[in-house]
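Holo prediction — iron/sulfur cluster.
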Amino acid sequence: MNTYDIIIVGAGPGGSIAAKNAAEMGLKTVFFERGRKPGEKNSSGCGLGPRMWKDFEIMKELTPEKCPSMRAGAASRNYFVNKEDIVAGYIMARPTESVSYEPAKSWITMNVYRSEFDPWLAEFATDAGAELKTSTLIVDLIKENGKVCGVIDEKGEKYEASIVIGADGVISTVAMKSGLRTKWAQNQVTLVPQYDFQAPPEKIDDIMGDEALGVWWGATFPASYQVFFRDGFHQGLGNWMSWWDKNPLFYLNKVVNLKYYQRLLKILEAKPRELQAHLLPWLDYPYNTYTDGVILIGDAGGFPCPLEAEGIYPAMITGKISAQIAAEAIASGDVSKAVLHKFDEEWQKTSIGEEFEAGYELWNIWKALPFSPKETMSWFVPMIMEVLGGIFDWSQPHALRIRQIASHVKSYMPKATPFIMKYVIPLVAKTFEDDLDKLMDPKKIMTILPKLLELLPQKKRKRGGKEK
Amino acid sequence: MKIELENLTKRILGTGNFISVDRNKCNRCGRCLIICIMNLWRKKDDTIYIVDDYQSKCLECASCYQVCEAGAINFQYPVGGTGVVYEKG
Ligand SMILES: Cc1cc2nc3c(=O)[nH]c(=O)nc-3n(C[C@H](O)[C@H](O)[C@H](O)COP(=O)(O)OP(=O)(O)OC[C@H]3O[C@@H](n4cnc5c(N)ncnc54)[C@H](O)[C@@H]3O)c2cc1C
Ligand code: SF4
Ligand code: SF4
């Protein structure tokens, strides 16, 4: 029998940070990875946000020598693709004036391949004294009197510890064997297939400049992200399990086969290099994250952000907290559910907890907008393009064009108004903690909106040629 | 543009069997047929099965397992150190 203080299953970002922190607090720590090395199984976008640098000192040590794929940028590009699969327009955006965290004014994302990032992160844990066992699949838990006290690998080898941390990602053996969860519900998890394209670094720099991210908002496919690395890029998309009516690649190939996209591939001299598919939990609120002797972190606990499913930062934050709570519990000699409840209290105090406060509203709006191409994006794209691009037409007098645009936008109101009432206002109300009822009163909105629209002038007075 | 999926993902042999179907539980809803990116599921004479050589094509995404509400698909990750290797994940 191998005995430890703490066992961590999974060497992703959550597991490695938990292992590092546990080892630093003097706990005898082991963490397991089914891959030959961390980062070769868990495909990801993969963009890292500035807040990782804010909250984790070690991020400052991430350099191109350690992680050659690194590429940061300040700009993102949003492509709007209409029902006819034509790029109807795009918006390039840079950090805006209201951004308050100083470094985030000069870059929005640092992109890295997980095959480089995860091993780099795991090294901090092994340097701190944690033992990493790779090529080892954990298949079961050891229980005594119904309480978890260790793990069993595929060869039947047993490992004992006071606490087991489930950092084993979306299909979590620890979650299932501890009885915390059977399987996710279909609307709690998304499937995300993605291509990796190879492209010469100088082409990427010349053509994309400091754009680090692209989002293709489609009327015939779920929103698709594009993440640029030094010598390649990811193109992927996802949706909840219940959404798919065809092979998910059908939708991803739709993006890749857009005329505009093909042109981009051509000038970037890009070639498909890898195909990946991974599940990603996407919940409105994490639940059942601990029990006697067990804590679930990161994807295993359902922690990706409810709006965009950014999951690396939440995995690292919950990893850090889990180690802290585990150390306290072990020291007190009580690792029961009642004590580990503190894990929930602690993550709820962080920015992740704050994010999940509006979790349902954020999750809901994402589900209803970019992930509902046919129902919503099919009118949303032409509506937004009418506003953004409608004026660029000189076939008719501009004032007439403005009236045409206004009346066209008005024609989308029967679809836009219920959408705003159902998804936008609850989010606004939740964010501002306003009285939902006051804002949501449909009668009030229906009386105000048409009046506002009526204010748009129907006729105009003549200006020139008046008698003096 | 047709992207050739063969050889687009690297694998290490020796996974062993890691997916199976329980015919008694399967209600033939067909969700696994739709969800599998690699098209590894088949229906023949009202029986659902996974192709024989799935081990050399599967992406270990577990979508088939996750989507099966009847609980008819058994899934366990392949033997440690084998199976899919994402070099540019
Ligand atoms: C396509 C895609 C794009 C994404 N894009 C982004 C992004 O741009 N930014 C972002 O922040 N997040 C992104 N995410 C989410 C992010 O990848 C995850 O939230 C994050 O990896 C979670 O970290 P984790 O440590 O909890 O789990 P994981 O990274 O999944 O790590 C779990 C580890 O445990 C191992 N493991 C699993 N089971 C066992 C077992 N039984 N025994 C031993 N080892 C096991 C796995 O091999 C893996 O290495 C994306 C996800 C996907 C799928
Ligand atoms: S998803 Fe499950 S129940 Fe449905 S056809 Fe496939 S194996 Fe059968
Ligand atoms: S794990 Fe994924 S790729 Fe493999 S058979 Fe199931 S759905 Fe297909």
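READOUT: DSSP finds two helices and six strands in chain B.
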